[in-house]
Amino acid sequence: MPDSDVEVPVLAALLSLFVMVAAITALVLWIMRWCRQGYVLPYEPRRRTPWGPVAGVLAVMMTAMGIMNVIMFRNAQGEGAQWTAEEFANAQLTMSLIQIGFAAAIVAVLVVVNGASLRDLGLPSSSDQLIYDVTLGIWIAFAAMVPVWVLQLGAIQILRVPPGHPLLDQMQQTPDWTLFAAAMLTAVVAAPVFEELVFRLLLQGGLERLEDESVGWKFSLPTRREQRVLDDLSAETNFRMAANVPLENEDIEDVPLEPDAAATTARLAAGDELWSARLQPQDLPKLPPGGDGMAPGLNHGWMPVLISSFLFALAHLGNGPSPIPLFALALVLGYVYQRTHRILPCIVAHMVINSVSVLMLILLLSDSGAAE
Fold first, then answer.
1. Contact in structure between 5 and 368 (CB atoms under 8 Å)
2. pTM of the full structure
3. 3-state secondary structure (DSSP) of residue 303
């Protein structure tokens, strides 16, 4: 599109003004809460994820695939290959369907194989929780926009690397409503859901479990191996009590225990009382992880955030300076997941940020008469 034809339409100007005011307001509220309370979000405890860090292998694979796709696309452009709007839209729709299918498969495997619950998957368990998560995600998205924009502009100026993304570049080269629809599906729906499931839920959640176990964080369920030992001990104790067989430990024998009391005591010692279905989230103690983590110099809880954020940014390598601001965005999303242990706020925040970028470009291209 010639530069002389580019002018900011009214709708784009109004959207820009609204986004800027909302972003500044949200960031000010974030800073005020941090200064007043010492934290932005209260810690909401949960049991360890039923999957371990091995699930993060998928995140590494997706990172490599993302880099390879961008490199292949850039090489094709460099060799003079031209995509039509329909071809690119079909490619994006195919990728979206693959990502949505992968996301559904991930959830199915976690439920069937690992026995994950709604709480484990970070999904809301009530309508009130749903409304809160969506509202939180919108707030987080706008609060993160100003830092992300500043880092994006700074990276462009310092590194002298022009901004770029295969999808947005193609939208400008061959503007078409079919491509616009594919862009909305890919960037606003498929990518946020898939990436947050992989990098936050699977990778960060699995790494949090690894760190909890490595430092002995007690407010988590025991591992499967530990649970088998506890089950064996409690079963033997209950059998002895039912058969009136004296216990070997006289101190324990003197304590009156009801059937299943040994199992209950073992579970309480492991922190299982925090995850009883009878307890509501507001009844759980707000005890964020404290002390040293599994990496020297980092407090407990932050190594998983850093690793997942780094791989998230690395997966966008080749999109100009985007990995730098995206690393900062991932830190924010990682913090939200670490504090709430719910994935929906992260997905909503990711969707809002992507939708603003895509919608702004669509308004500019369509209002200038470029779209066919």
1. yes
2. 0.77
3. helix
